[in-house]
Amino acid sequence: MSVRLDEMDRKILAQLQEDAGQSLDDIARKVGSSKTPVWNRIRKLKEAGVIGRQTVILDPDALGLEACFFVLIRTSEHEADWQRKFLETLRNRPEVLEAHRLAGDIDYILKVRVQNARAYDTFYQALISEVRIYNVTALLSMEEIKSTTVLPV
Hints:
By secondary structure, this protein is α+β, with helices and mostly antiparallel strands. It has helices at about 5-20, 25-30, 35-45, 80-90, 115-130; strands spanning about 65-75, 95-100, 110-115, 135-140. The longest helix has 14 residues, at about 115-130.
């Protein structure tokens, strides 16, 4: 269910996506409002679930996590117990940044961030030791062309 947003809400959301750490005064100035109405709108957007948790974006290269793999998984298992165990395993692996269940020939795709190919192999070995997987294909990203958390508002 989507929430009705007016132009001011959209301007505020755009500012928060650009830099959630900026002051209310700065946001208010940039959107052409004053501090209290902006604060009230942000509070309402949080209550409505439009704004989730706030965090910071870290540079993976600066942290030595230079290898990004996209892992394509096919499974022959579709029982609830297998799926529960698989999802629990993914949630417990900090290397998995994203996991998606897909329609089509591939059942799942994972975005995995690690130091290098050897670290990926360690991740892979741990994954297949915890859950039974029919087929795994790993694709190494050679270059990140675009990566953003900014949604079009």
